[in-house]
Amino acid sequence: MDGNVETATEDTACCVPVGAVDTGALAADVELLSAMGNDTRYELLRRIDGAGGEVCVCDLESAVGVSQSAVSQALSRLYTAGLVTRRKDGNWRYYGLTDEAERLLATLDAVRGDRQ
Amino acid sequence: MDGNVETATEDTACCVPVGAVDTGALAADVELLSAMGNDTRYELLRRIDGAGGEVCVCDLESAVGVSQSAVSQALSRLYTAGLVTRRKDGNWRYYGLTDEAERLLATLDAVRGDRQ
DNA sequence: CATCCATATTAACTATCTCTTATATTGTCT
DNA sequence: AGACAATATAAGAGATAGTTAATATGGATG
């Protein structure tokens, strides 16, 4: 009934035991973070963010310095991770940020502002 | 004078040009995100977070399922990325979260709550 | 329907990551 | 000083990820 939760091991000698962690949430978060933690994909996110709304692939291609195939694969991974939306309109595909992505980017901006 | 800022390429036919992006900030963010986006390292962050304060390496070792060496390397990378603090006390090293890490984890919790 | 254009997919190669084992460092205690 | 305990570092093997070139798909248009 208690699902994916482990209890910490017994405390040995030096310090306090560490708390339990929900392994399902861990995996989901890592998926998200590793999708964002790559030059090409993160730049795509920032480009879409900077455009203020949806952007078509053709413009993203010219913005980042990799092949069309690489851009397409990067966008696919971002989509799978739930970071971008995808809309087809005629020949073009438009990508936008999800709320999740917007909030994470906003936090990164805020955190960077403090630390820098 | 205008540093690490690129201007977007000219708009071709289909849509609006994408905005400029600060490449220095991009690299720093990717460093941060890729440091977090790994099972071992993210679990360490969450374990430290769950413990509420500083945790010594010995307890972290027993919590995640990799070797002592792997834990040490993971913590080093987190430290370099500015995600954890490090304090030496006798034989032990205590690791804690930085404000930056705490805020990012909090955002991830909030975002997951919404989407799930 | 033939063709073109925008994007996606596949396959193959290379580079990068992450782990493990072995060894070094640093502090403590007798 | 010598032994031991906790952590860090080095080196190398195996797994994983990112890129490109080539090909496929699907909508638009003459």
From TrEMBL, chains A, B:
Recorded coiled-coil stretches: none
Keyword set includes Transcription: yes
Residue span(s) of domain HTH arsR-type: 21-116
Presence of the UniProt keyword Zinc-finger in the record: no
Annotated InterPro entries: ArsR-like_HTH, HTH_ArsR_DNA-bd_dom, HTH_MetalResp_TranReg, WH-like_DNA-bd_sf, WH_DNA-bd_sf
Gene Ontology molecular-function annotations: DNA binding; DNA-binding transcription factor activity
Protein source organism: Halapricum hydrolyticum
Superkingdom of the source species: Archaea
UniProt keyword annotations, A-Z: DNA-binding, Transcription, Transcription regulation
SUPFAM superfamilies membership: Winged helix' DNA-binding domain
UniProt protein name: Metalloregulator ArsR/SmtB family transcription factor
Listed Pfam families: HTH_5
